[in-house]
Automatic annotation (TrEMBL):
S-adenosyl-L-methionine binds at C247, A248, A249, P250, G251, G252, K253, D268, D294, D310. InterPro entries: MeTrfase_RsmB-F_NOP2_cat, MeTrfase_RsmB-F_NOP2_dom, NusB-like_sf, NusB_RsmB_TIM44, RCMT, SAM-dependent_MTases_sf. This is 16S rRNA (Cytosine967-C5)-methyltransferase. It comes from the Bacteria.
Length: 433
């Protein structure tokens, strides 16, 4: 008997990475490969490193592909483009991984795909040209990393000097931020974390999955970016106040509101995401009323003292974790989100009792979804007034508060003086007269 020829080392992870990258190029959000896709932790880490490098360097890789493919990307070619991008990421931007494996495994991966195998010769030729020009391609301008769709807007909104900080944050990725259930110095030390601001701590480097970190199983913290933790802190209501958390899943802000002592109703239209919210609250031993309903049409039996609306948005502020987002979104997408946000703001206002506080926030860097929505709300919702945030409410991030008392964070900021940046977030606080 003859034994089946074993697959080349590294091919399985290359194929898995190509499939995941292909799905992202087709419009899916990036989700790191997990144990079910690649059991070996080292293979999984390498595959995710290749994917994230290809995504973070997408603008530069677009330039390289344009320079190398005279006739453009072949149509209906299966995983060809994904394999090519992974290999270019390795050849040009990850030289420590070696050039030979990039070339060999790219050709082998292409041959494994019936829709791409006829292009294996082209793959080899293109990558050899890339290898020959890797020094030149490796010095491409970081200006290519952000598409003009958003780059011009961000220059106008944040200034020319902010853009290098944005690209630096894009390439660096995001550290892991946690919100603590209790301020426990022993737990912070055990996590290897650093306090950032309020009850947020940051882990810059970790060697294990989130679920394996100290305190996870006991429900002593939850994952939440430093910027995302800001809105719920600004409600400033008395303990026991009734608060409605709209678009609440997966529940980070809901947990904050419960921790603050409010009676919380968490609402979201997505049943699966609501189930995840309930699981997260159960791990934390927190309780809230949960409702699966449309935040744009929900009508409560009685009005709330506070409403927090974390509205669906373009999510451009999350590009440190989701570098694909700036390439997936268009001006039309932003305009569509603006219309939805106005409908949700209108209903959030309807749910708010007289004298109540409304927090509106989005994880977007687009003024159209932030500052411009404030002007619209004040003009369109009679009885709604701005309740300005003051700098002393933002200790460790005073510069995020503008002259109107609106909060704007971006990835170039250093919360609490800590390196690693933060998500781009906009927060406005209103009161119903």
């Amino acid at each position: 008997m003859t034994s089946k020829k074993s697959e080349p080392a590294g091919l399985a992870l290359r194929l898995a990475a190509a499939e995941r990258l292909r799905s992202v190029l087709n419009g899916d959000n990036f989700v790191p490969l997990g144990p079910t896709e690649l059991a070996d932790g080292r293979d999984r880490a390498l595959a995710n490193r290749l994917i994230t490098t290809a995504l973070r360097r997408q603008g530069q890789i677009n330039f390289i592909i344009h320079a190398l493919l005279d006739k453009g990307m072949p149509g209906k070619s299966g995983t060809f483009e994904a394999v090519l991008r992974l290999s270019l990421a390795q050849l040009v931007f990850l030289p420590d991984l070696g050039a030979h494996s990039a070339l060999f495994l790219a050709v082998e991966a292409t041959k494994r795909d019936p829709k791409a195998r006829h292009l294996s010769g082209l793959m080899n030729a293109v990558l050899r040209r890339a290898q020959a020009n890797s020094a030149k391609f490796g010095t491409l301008s970081d200006d290519l990393l952000i598409p003009d769709t958003f780059g011009d807007t961000w220059v106008d909104a944040y200034g020319e000097a902010a853009i290098p900080a944005f690209t630096e944050a894009l390439l660096a990725g995001a550290p892991l931020d946690l919100t603590l259930k209790d301020n426990d110095a022993e737990l912070i030390a055990e996590l290897g974390a650093t306090p950032v601001m309020a009850d947020t701590v940051r882990i810059d480097m970790r060697d294990r999955p989130v679920e394996a970190l100290p305190g996870y199983a006991e429900g002593r913290w939850w994952v939440q970016d430093a910027a995302s933790a800001i809105p719920a802190r600004l409600l400033k209501l008395e303990q026991g106040a009734r608060v409605l958390d709209l678009c609440a899943a997966p529940g980070g802000k809901t947990a904050q509101l419960i921790k603050a002592g409010y009676a919380v109703t968490a609402l979201d239209s997505d049943a699966r995401r609501m189930e995840r919210l309930r699981e997260n609250l159960a791990r934390l031993d927190y309780n809230a009323e949960t409702i699966t309903a449309d935040a744009g049409t929900f009508g409560p039996n009685s009005l709330y003292d506070g409403v927090l609306l974390d509205a669906p948005c373009s999510a451009t502020g999350t590009f440190r974790r989701h570098p694909e987002v700036v390439w997936h979104r268009s001006v039309a997408d932003v305009q569509g989100r603006v219309r939805l946000q106005r409908a949700l703001l209108t209903n959030a206002f309807r749910c708010l009792d007289a004298g109540g506080v409304l927090i509106y926030c989005v994880c977007s860097l687009e003024p159209a979804e932030g500052e411009e929505q404030v002007s619209w709300a004040l003009d369109s919702l009679p009885g709604l007034e701005l309740y300005p945030v003051t700098a002393d409410e933002m200790a460790g991030l005073e510069s995020a508060v503008d002259q109107r008392g609106l909060v704007r964070t971006h990835p170039g900021m250093a919360p609490g003086g800590q390196a690693g940046g933060m998500d781009g977030f906009f927060v406005a606080r209103f009161r119903r007269r």
